[in-house]
């Protein structure tokens, strides 16, 4: 099965319930990342766990805060340990890896920090996050994994906003990407999904 | 079973693996909230789900970021929807509830924000978090629940640091508290657990 096969339960919820704010912003936070529907999140975790398994990861990696729920759902299904990058974290034990990520919605930058001992050299890492949008968080995590001399073997996302181009930062590094739903574009107040090929 | 019966798998990990930094700070972030052990987190979620069930909650509530993993573990076990308060969240849809929480480790204050529509009046809310320490986050969430005219029927925590007194802010509101491990005190570089009564 192709890595971007639409996951029907998620696509149906997006089409039925998303609020399109403008041509870049779509709100689905009532089931994805402010209020979470446990049945859908559990099903998505199981599906992502199934899709990343062939890449034989031994560690999951995400970033605070909205990545934690989908990544934990994958962790509980796969039995893989989960490391999440912290934001604003003076109490992360040094030495640490860190990257500054521009934060368009919040203004300024956010610092992502991971204690080095939790990202061992040689680890086979699967990145998990809720959205792949402009790809800046994904790029920061990919750079950290490279600095740790670990291998980023696959990246899995619930929703890709294709029109923001974030996939490029992963595909140019030859990192396989799997997504459960791809939003082709937002137009005239509605969501246009990318169909299965 | 009393609500504070020690959960043996967690107590054992704390005693075997915690790093005591000083008489207030204990590090167990390698399995709890930076790197997560999925087997232990799943087991703790199941245990908390079992303990809160008699209070018949219909909604789980926690706060970014370290509350998300334990709360989702409970949500996946119980099938209850989960709402988490966001920090620094200009994109939460108004009207919203919010409280400022002092942040001792980070300095300054953190603003917790919840969209009002995700916390309906009359909801039976179970609060879940990783730590009950000074109780400031718990108090902020309790105040928000009261403002929403919802009912906080129980609060569940993985670890209570008894010497920081946070339970007081819940017990004075007659909110039942359940904990999986209680740290009585930190002394001479070691953790002293509260025993079962």
From TrEMBL, chains A, B:
Presence of the UniProt keyword Glycosyltransferase in the record:
yes
CDD domains, A to Z? PRTases_typeI
- Does Zinc-finger show up as a keyword for this record? no
- Family matches, as InterPro entries: PRTase-like, PRTase_dom, Pur/Pyrimidine_PRTase, Xanthine_PRibTrfase
Q: What is its EC number?
A: 2.4.2.22
MF GO annotations:
xanthine phosphoribosyltransferase activity
Q: Single Gene Ontology BP term?
A: xanthine metabolic process
Q: Which UniProt keywords apply?
A: Cytoplasm, Glycosyltransferase, Purine salvage, Transferase
Record-given protein name: Xanthine phosphoribosyltransferase
Native organism is Oscillochloris trichoides DG-6
């Amino acid at each position: 099965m192709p890595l971007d096969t639409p996951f029907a339960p998620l696509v149906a919820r997006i089409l039925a319930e998303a609020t399109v704010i403008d041509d870049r912003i779509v709100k689905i936070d009532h089931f994805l990342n402010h209020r979470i529907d446990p049945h859908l999140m559990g099903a998505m975790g199981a599906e992502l766990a199934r899709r990343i398994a062939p890449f034989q990861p031994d560690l999951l990696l995400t970033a605070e805060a909205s990545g934690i729920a989908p990544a934990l759902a994958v962790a509980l299904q796969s039995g893989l340990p989960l490391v999440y990058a912290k934001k604003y974290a003076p109490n992360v034990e040094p030495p640490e890896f860190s990257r500054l990520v521009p934060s368009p919605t919040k203004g300024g930058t956010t610092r992502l920090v991971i204690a080095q001992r939790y990202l061992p050299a040689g680890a086979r890492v699967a990145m998990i996050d809720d959205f792949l949008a402009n790809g800046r968080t994904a790029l920061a995590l990919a750079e950290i994994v490279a600095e740790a001399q670990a291998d980023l073997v696959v990246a899995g996302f619930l929703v890709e906003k294709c029109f923001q181009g974030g996939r490029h930062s992963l595909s140019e590094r030859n990192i396989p990407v799997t997504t459960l739903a791809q939003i082709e574009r937002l137009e005239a107040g509605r969501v246009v999904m990318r169909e299965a090929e």
